[in-house]
Amino acid sequence: MRGPRATFSFVGIGLAAGLLSGLFGVGGGTVIVPLLVLLLNFDQRLAAGTSLAAIVPTASVGVISYALSGSVAWIPALILAAGSVVGAQIGTRLLPRVSQTALRWFFVAFLVVVIVGLFLVIPSRDSELHLTWVTGPMLVVLGLCTGVLAGLIGVGGGVVVVPALVLLFGTSDLVAKGTSLLMMIPTAVSGTIGNLRHRNVDLVAAAIIGLSACTTTALGAWLAGFVDPFVGNMLFAAYLVVIGVQMAFKAIRGRR
Question: 3-state DSSP call for residue 133?
């Protein structure tokens, strides 16, 4: 879809996705995909591929913003990315064999557990993510699980990694967000290359959304540093509720 209406829609979607990406350490796909489908009648696969391409510049700006305050764990992020890339391949191969409805309900249940945990565990801004013989393998497993979920139901990245780093690894919420954004870059690049081969990317839309998102990602990251950790948890919990409701509706429609 082209024209002034489409262009303004792409810009608006990018601005919203960039702000959420910087604020919560997520890729923004949970905003981009449904809006492309609802507002511009994109096919689901084309919307997902376009969103993944737009995430590359968005996450890059987010990483730079968090890195300026020292809130990126570089080596753990690369470990997560390696696991995620492999996991995504596993997920896509399992896709024809697994019930999507059951998977979506499982993910909703997972989000409920995470939301409860966010009310119970308040991260310390001084906590760091240390790489040890214990945390290293755990990061590999986390990356694999994130990738498998992304391959199976198209949701992963920051929605899984940020709360996992905070709740399981005791990481600062800012470090968790910065690390999550860095992890997404190689994963998004890998996925975009595959989508380009299958013509599942609207490059013009991805460029406009990605560039628009870059203008607000730094703002979101800046706001994240000023938000109290407890308030940040509550905002992220509200964001997860929205995602959980979306996934529940998809599960209900899938059953019908």
Answer: coil
Find all residues with CB under 8 Å of 112, minimum gap 6, and list them: 244
Residue 111 has pLDDT above 80, yes or no: yes
The backbone torsions φ and ψ at residue 172, rounded to the nearest 5 degrees and listed phi first, read -55, 145
Percentage, residues of the chain above pLDDT 70: 96
34, two tokens: 């449904």
| Helix axes of 203-226 and 44-67: crossing angle, nearest 10 degrees | 40
pLDDT at 52: 85
Buried b (16+ CB within 10 A) or exposed e, 151-179: bbbbbbbbbbbbbbbbbebebbbbbbbbb
> What's the rounded Cα separation, in Å, for the pair 51 and 38?
14
Measure Cα distances from 173 to 21, 73, 154, 206, 240 in Å. 14, 12, 24, 28, 15
Rounded CA gap, 122 and 231, in Å? Answer: 9
CA separation for the pair 153, 219 (Å, rounded): 29
The residue behind tokens 């608006």 is: 12
Among 36, 40, 39, which Cα is nearest to 49's? Answer: 36
SS3 content of the chain, % helix, strand, coil (to 5): 80, 0, 20
What six digits make up the tokens of 7?
A: 């262009």
Residue 115 gets which letter from DSSP? H
Given its phi and psi angles, is residue 154 left (phi above 0), alpha (psi -120 to 50 degrees) or beta? left
Residue 205 predicted with pLDDT over 80: yes
Which tokens is 246 given? 């979306």
The model's pTM is: 0.87
